[in-house]
């Protein structure tokens, strides 16, 4: 007869195998949790229905479908194009400037969408044809869009910050503000990596356009509606007009008004399609959140997080060693698991460690989310790689082969963020 520890280890191994071969994440988490509950017998089987329902029955999670809808509205209208043009006018004069413009467009678009996949798809559709015209290799052009899309969950508003805030009882409004300068730093690091890549591969020399202050001013004016969205959202939250959750509804209303009545890029007849498409995405994400929390609950009952936390604390690696160990753990999880699931599963393990080191939970949240974003552009999960592949027609693995300099840039940015808490806590 196998011991409980051996059974749990076997079940965990089978879960990892099924994730690697591509089984649906919510199914793996749900069945894995059920198997552990039945095998160990320390919990009533009723938890399988109660915990997922309670997990979804959360006021803060109402923002999830609304921010997804916001990204769909913006990507279907003219605002995304205007934001990309602004990035080009700001950065296009440098060597490899069009690639930097792609990253800049992703940065500005992130301020309205709150979604990495929407960021990748919207900017990729616009910029990849232009990059190809200027001599960029197609896989690298797609890789730029995928890497820039990582900014979608760092620059406020951010859906992932909402999930982290719910799980750790941290102020979502503070997390939104804390993500501003780390998002800028990550964008700058990506631009540096693009510059070096273009110099080495001789791409982008013909894409340089002279800098013009008047052109920049015109493009900024044309992009005013997109730039105004994050200002309205953050201003409304910190003036007390609405909560972070309600800000998602404000974002949807604002974007609909802009795209239907002002830019007139979205017709009333297209609105049901946008709602339906966003509903499908929400329907895919919702079960993942529900069963991730169930899995985390089962792990807590089995005291797995406590054991791991105690081991890491007792290792006496110091502040630097522990943060680097956490970073490595997050990167590995990000490669195999969706970001929301990683946060929900890992936070019960990592929060005691962060508290023991005296790390502020807002700063820790930014560090965690920024590190997990690297998983969006690393196989085998790599959601942004799949989104870039869909809009570019380039096979997933070819994009992954070209994205490694941009991955290294994000790793460098995360290390800086980890040890410079002032970047995240500037507003305090």
Automatic annotation (TrEMBL):
Predominant place of localization: membrane
Membrane-protein topology: Multi-pass membrane protein
Tell me where the transmembrane regions lie. 12-38, 59-80, 92-110, 140-164, 176-201, 222-242, 248-267, 274-296, 308-333, 340-358, 364-391, 403-427
- The protein here is known as TRAP transporter large permease protein
**Keyword Disulfide bond attached:** no
Question: What function does the entry list?
Answer: Part of the tripartite ATP-independent periplasmic (TRAP) transport system.
Q: Which UniProt keywords apply?
A: Cell inner membrane, Cell membrane, Membrane, Transmembrane, Transmembrane helix, Transport
Localization per record: Cell inner membrane
Subunit and interaction comment: The complex comprises the extracytoplasmic solute receptor protein and the two transmembrane proteins.
Q: Which domain of life is it from?
A: Bacteria
Signal peptide interval: none
NCBIfam families recorded: dctM
Pfam families in the cross-refs: DctM
């Amino acid at each position: 007869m196998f011991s409980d520890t051996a059974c749990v280890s076997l079940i965990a191994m089978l879960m990892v195998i099924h994730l690697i071969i591509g089984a649906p994440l919510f199914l793996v988490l749900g069945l894995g949790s059920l198997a552990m509950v039945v095998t160990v017998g320390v919990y009533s089987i009723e938890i399988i229905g109660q915990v997922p329902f309670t997990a979804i029955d959360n006021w803060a999670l109402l923002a999830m479908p609304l921010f997804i809808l916001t990204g769909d509205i913006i990507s279907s209208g003219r605002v995304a194009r205007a934001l990309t043009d602004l990035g080009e006018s700001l950065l296009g004069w440098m060597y490899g400037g069009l690639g930097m413009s792609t990253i800049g467009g992703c940065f500005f678009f992130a301020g309205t969408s709150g979604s990495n996949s929407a960021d990748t798809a919207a900017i990729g559709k616009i910029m990849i044809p232009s990059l190809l015209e200027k001599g960029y290799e197609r896989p690298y052009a797609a890789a730029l869009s995928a890497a820039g899309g990582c900014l979608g969950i760092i620059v406020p508003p951010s859906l992932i910050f909402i999930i982290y805030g719910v799980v750790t009882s941290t102020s979502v409004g503070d997390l939104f503000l804390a993500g501003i300068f780390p998002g800028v730093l990550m964008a700058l690091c990506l631009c540096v990596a693009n510059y070096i890549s273009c110099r080495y591969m001789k791409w982008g020399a013909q894409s340089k356009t002279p800098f013009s202050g008047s052109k920049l001013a015109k493009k900024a004016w044309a992009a005013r509606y997109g730039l105004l969205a994050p200002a309205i959202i953050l201003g409304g939250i910190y003036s007390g007009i609405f909560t972070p959750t309600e800000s998602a509804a404000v974002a949807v209303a604002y974007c609909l008004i802009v795209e239907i009545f002002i830019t007139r890029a979205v017709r009333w007849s297209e609105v049901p399609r946008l709602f339906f498409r966003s509903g499908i995405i929400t329907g895919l994400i919702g079960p993942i959140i529900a069963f991730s929390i169930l899995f985390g609950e089962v792990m807590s009952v089995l005291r797995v997080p406590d054991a791991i936390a105690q081991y890491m604390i007792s290792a006496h690696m110091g502040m630097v060693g522990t943060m680097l160990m956490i970073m490595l753990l997050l990167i590995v999880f990000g490669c195999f698991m969706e970001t929301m699931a990683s946060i929900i599963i890992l936070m019960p393990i990592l929060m005691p460690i962060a508290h023991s080191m005296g790390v502020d939970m807002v700063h820790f949240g930014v560090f965690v989310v920024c590190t997990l974003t690297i998983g969006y552009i690393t196989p085998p999960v790599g959601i942004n790689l799949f989104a870039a592949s869909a809009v570019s027609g380039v096979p997933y693995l070819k994009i992954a082969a070209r994205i490694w300099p941009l991955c290294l840039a994000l790793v460098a940015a995360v290390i800086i963020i980890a040890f410079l808490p002032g970047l995240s806590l500037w507003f305090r």
